[in-house]
């Protein structure tokens, strides 16, 4: 009878480690742990963690009966409908015990495959501003294009490029050539969008950006903090790292006025 209770205790511990323990079964588990206080009630939890983390050093320290119990529970655990069904291909028995996977190796491999399947479609693709700009030009019918003009500021002298902006999409991109490389720990560039529907003293913050070393031409997405109603002027200033809420406009490096014909 005692051995039956110990066996039952191990089953409940394994269920709890796998998150399958109901309130009723949890009460049964607590009673059995009171009856057998010498049992380590955290062993199964560590065994599951060792398998899922594929930690060989941790897994090898687990008692064999814990790993076997967990292996059996995971093998019997039904798969969720959202998980892809794997085709099981029989393998020839490996004769040399040196290369035998055992329950730990099999479970670790299964866990790695499952994690890969879950994440393979969730990895975000790298954002390409050049492609994004082309897509905006192709899809939006109200895109305006405004050329940049450099100023007398040493950082903007000789700079060129343009701004494209779609009012309907509230999206746009800056293309910049010839703007001086900046040290982002000292200063950053910040875009301002002057809106005819707003007070000129408070243009819309279009985001901060940097010019990296060796960049002949760079395309930068506009990060307008609020909606822009009717842009009339785009300007880039030099500000402290992180940008400012209201610019003193002491250093305007490039600017572009929206033509009245647009």
TrEMBL record:
InterPro entries: Anti-sigma-K/W_factor (IPR051474), RskA_C (IPR018764)
GO BP, one annotated term: regulation of translation
Any one GO molecular-function label of the UniProt entry: sigma factor antagonist activity
Annotated transmembrane regions: 99-118
Keywords assigned by UniProt, alphabetized: Membrane, Transmembrane, Transmembrane helix
Keyword Transmembrane helix attributed: yes
Domain Anti-sigma K factor RskA C-terminal: 107-244
Keyword Methyltransferase: no
Entries under Pfam families matching the protein: RskA_C (PF10099)
Any Gene Ontology CC annotation: plasma membrane
Name of the protein described by the UniProt record: Anti-sigma factor
Organism, scientific name: Eiseniibacteriota bacterium
High-level lineage: Bacteria, Candidatus Eiseniibacteriota
């Amino acid at each position: 009878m005692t051995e039956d209770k110990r066996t039952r205790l191990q089953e409940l511990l394994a269920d709890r480690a796998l998150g399958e323990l109901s309130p009723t079964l949890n009460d049964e588990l607590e009673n059995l742990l009171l009856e057998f206080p010498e049992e380590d009630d955290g062993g199964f939890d560590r065994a599951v963690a060792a398998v899922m983390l594929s930690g060989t050093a941790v897994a090898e320290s687990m008692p064999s009966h814990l790993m076997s119990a967990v292996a059996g529970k995971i093998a019997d655990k039904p798969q969720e409908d959202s998980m892809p069904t794997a085709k099981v291909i029989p393998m020839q028995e490996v004769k040399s015990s040196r290369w035998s996977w055992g329950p730990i190796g099999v479970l670790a491999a299964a866990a790695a495959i499952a994690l890969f399947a879950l994440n393979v479609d969730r990895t975000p693709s790298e954002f390409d501003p050049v492609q994004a700009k082309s897509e905006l030009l192709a899809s939006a019918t109200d895109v305006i294009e405004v050329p940049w003009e450099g100023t007398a500021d040493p950082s903007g002298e000789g700079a060129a490029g343009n701004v494209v902006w779609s009012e309907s999409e509230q999206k746009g991109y800056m293309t910049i050539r010839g703007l001086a490389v900046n040290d982002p720990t000292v200063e950053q560039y910040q875009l301002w969008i002057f809106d005819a529907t707003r007070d000129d003293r408070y243009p819309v913050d279009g985001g901060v950006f940097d010019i990296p070393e060796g960049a002949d031409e760079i395309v930068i997405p506009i990060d307008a903090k609020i909606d822009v109603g009717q842009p009339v002027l785009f300007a880039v200033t030099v500000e402290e790292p992180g940008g400012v809420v209201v610019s003193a406009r002491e250093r305007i490096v490039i600017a572009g006025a929206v033509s009245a014909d647009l």
